[in-house]
Amino acid sequence: MPILNQIKTDFQQALKRRQTLKVATLRMLMAALNDERSALYGSQDKQLADEQTVVIIRRETKKRREAIALYNQGKRPELAAKEAQEIKFLEQYLPAQMPESEVTKITQRVIAQLGAQGPAVFGKVMGVVMGQLNGQADGKQVAETVKRSLNTTNFK
């Protein structure tokens, strides 16, 4: 079942169960998906592919993580908790994340293939690693792994 259909089904179920926060979160997500679809395809009756849907869900999740940091900084834990709950609703539509050990293996393999030396090639290594991971790992986690690997790799 496409992700968008699953979101719509879950939205209907949340409406019936009167889960107000979940309804609001999924309604916002469907609006973001619809906006993206309209921007890409205009008035055509095309649907977003699952890959495009995942990108939008990640973007919405990232917005909430940033909001949590701001709410915590502003000493508003109740709002941060609400955003955290919304993240839980959104993450159930994302593909499973790759374990950090696997990300490290891929990163080290890319560094060896590119013959990368030092932190100056960070961007190049990041681009290749993110391309190989295909959205199965958080960019922040990958960046930390690449930095750590570039700093600890024995250079000749």
UniProtKB/TrEMBL annotation:
Pfam families: YqeY. Keywords: Transferase. GO terms for molecular function: carbon-nitrogen ligase activity, with glutamine as amido-N-donor; transferase activity. The keyword Transferase applies. PANTHER family: ALTERED INHERITANCE OF MITOCHONDRIA PROTEIN 41, MITOCHONDRIAL. This is Glutamyl-tRNA amidotransferase. It comes from Candidatus Shapirobacteria bacterium CG09_land_8_20_14_0_10_49_15.
